[in-house]
From TrEMBL:
Lineage, opening ranks: Bacteria, Pseudomonadati, Pseudomonadota, Gammaproteobacteria, Vibrionales
Coiled coil: none
Organism: Vibrio orientalis CIP 102891 = ATCC 33934
Domain VWFA: 151-427
Name of the molecule in the record: Protein TadG associated with Flp pilus assembly
Alphabetically ordered keywords of this record: Membrane, Transmembrane, Transmembrane helix
Membrane-spanning segments: 12-30
Amino acid sequence: MPTIRKNRGVAGILFIGLLPIMVIFMAFSMQMSQQMLAHARVLEAAEVASLALIASPKESEDDNVKYARQLVDRYVVDNINDVDVEVYTRKCEYKDGCVQASGEVAPFSDFVVSAKAEHKSWIAYEEAELKPEFEVAGKSVTRKYLPQPVDVYFIGDFSGSMTGHWKGGKTKLDVVKQTIERVVEDIADFNTEEKSRVALLGYNPLHVKQSGTVYLNAYGYRRSWPKKIAYDYARGTSAQTVAKMFDPPSVYSRVQEYVRGMSRLDVENLVVNNDRFVDYYKFYDIPLTEDYTHFKARLASAWLGAEGGTSSWNGIIAAAQEANRATNINPEQVFIVLSDGADNDTNYLQRLVNQGLCTKLRSTISAKRNRFQSKTGSAGKTKVTMGVIGVDYRVKESDGFGDCFGRKNIYHAKDGDDVYKYILNLINEETGRLKD
């Protein structure tokens, strides 16, 4: 018993001796907890502000700071003075070599928000370095990839079924043309280093190019027709079609020109054939261009109509050749098929895909050096995106589109707004994320 009482006495003495240290340690822990909590709140506030600003930047840096402070103040509520908030933006672009040096795949913009706040300590004890006030700071960097200049190839269905009426009393063709015009206006507003470009490659059973006008003034006829040529990209077999997909196509038919010395009968036949030709092949391609005004004018032309059957591969191969001919291409190459029905030969596209049509298109175009690519080819590699939008039509994957475009890039548009939305889905890949 005496030993137990002795040990209790020693323990009591030790407890009394350690009590001040324990109190100081408890006070220190409470202040550290307070500071850690305050720092977490400031850091969270900075992250929220940077995300909000990158999603909806204001007109000036002063407005950005004001907006960021409003957001920060909602999170930091126990500060003793105004929170010190700083906001700035830094861009990384191809033209200054930043993208190549950073190793990123595209130009980007960083929104940097830093916040600093002062707080009154729960417990203060100067002798133990427990200050009556303390300061915490946090910074957040949110990165958003900037829209890159893009080359868009609209592969349009100009078969007769596109003249059918859709929602709102407009034909499907009119809706598609107006939607493409709307998208081109959006592209014109893209704030990119270089201008984006657009092209229209159409198809019914064939593909048609137009250049200039054919005139006739003979035997009492005074006529003119657009100078059109209809091309067929199909060869003897599907394997030959793919093997020669970048070779000049076969001329199927064309608008005939008057030749001096023609007989009256020849001229009469020329008039009949040319009228029949332009009535059946009412469309034409619009080559890749950054002249949006000219593109929209040709797109809106009353001479751009639809007739006949459907052979989508002619439009796809025509677009592939257009992209292959292009020089100084943009880093994003986007091919978009807009169709309201299956091909007349529902198996031919699948046979072409099995022979490597889409694989060859992707590999050939992605291997082309784009206008930003470094000499070593190590940064800014050309990217190819392909998609198909069914215009009031559910595209069947088994028709070849599934293996060519992939399931995630097959869309079913129920109205014009869907067409617009899905086109932008394929063109835009703007993302914002916190920088690691």
